[in-house]
Write a structure and sequence with these properties.
Length: 259
């Protein structure tokens, strides 16, 4: 079989040319980075879990009318996605003070915010993804007024839905990061949800114990990264209750055996 053409390699994922025009294959690596890749490591099995968790969440969001790039899972580490032009803005949604917000304003982590905050960061590794305002985004043309409005609107809907979903499984959705991409239909474009939603880009705290079930375990050298990601997958119903084998193995095996 001819080697697939690699389109892009990021810190946690690789994009390959897809089987049809307008599609790509998104491969989830086990690599983990933090602090703009100053800290590097691997979390063995993370890619498999994030592929499955992101598929699950994007499918649910699609079901409430949020357009996403997700098309279908291909195997344990890969999913077929729509090719988009990534908007160079990371949209961060915060419900609780944590991370960089805690540092910036000097408020202890864990304080519930009286209203949800949306922040924008300009995607530029060389600059360390600086925080920017909507004024900068419009002024420098990184997104249009309409796109900004659509992204903020979807971010709030995603937050409302996911806050409830996670609360239902005993997890507090503290904050998370979204990325959006443009798709073109004739001469018109619109933005859809892209990238991934997984414990790599969310803060997820167990409601009872406060335990961190996300990438802060890696960022802060807490250990137990895979166990935390597995716990999230298990509570979402994606792992057998008493095991650690992703359910996806079962159906890819079933397909292989032609059943
Ligand atoms: P922060 O508190 O470090 O700004 O992070 C806010 C949220 O965004 C947190 O859930 C982690 C996520 N995030 C990413 O997914 N990628 C990044 O590069 C950064 C800085 C944060």
């Amino acid at each position: 079989m001819a080697r697939r053409r690699q389109i892009y390699e990021g810190k946690a994922k690789i994009l390959y040319e897809g089987p049809e025009p307008g599609t790509l294959i998104q491969y989830f690596k086990d690599d983990a980075t933090a602090f703009n890749a100053q800290k590097k490591g691997t979390i063995s099995g993370k890619g498999v879990l994030n592929n499955r968790i992101s598929e699950h969440i994007f499918t649910l969001l699609g079901g409430i009318g949020i357009p996403t790039h997700f098309l279908r899972r291909l195997n344990m580490r890969e999913q077929l996605i729509r090719q988009v032009e990534i908007v160079p803005i990371e949209v961060v949604v915060r419900n609780v003070v944590a991370g960089s917000l805690s540092k910036r304003i000097g408020v202890e982590e864990g304080q519930q915010l009286p209203r949800t905050i949306i922040e924008y960061y300009y995607k530029d590794d060389a600059l360390g993804d600086p925080m920017v305002s909507d004024e900068h985004i419009l002024c420098f043309g990184w997104a249009s007024q309409e796109e900004l409005h659509d992204m903020a609107d979807m971010a709030i809907r995603v937050n409302d839905y996911l806050s409830g979903l996670f609360a239902g499984i005993g997890i507090r959705l503290v904050d998370f990061k979204l990325e959006f991409g443009r798709i073109w239909e004739n001469e018109f474009s619109r933005v859809i949800l892209a990238d991934e939603i997984s414990p790599d880009g969310c803060r997820l705290w167990d409601m009872a114990s406060g335990e961190k079930l996300d990438k802060d375990r890696f960022r802060r050298d807490l250990g137990g990264e895979v166990e935390a990601y597995q716990e999230v997958a298990r509570r979402l119903g994606l792992l057998p209750e008493d095991g650690d084998t992703p359910v996806l193995d079962l159906d890819s095996h079933r397909k292989l055996r032609g059943k």
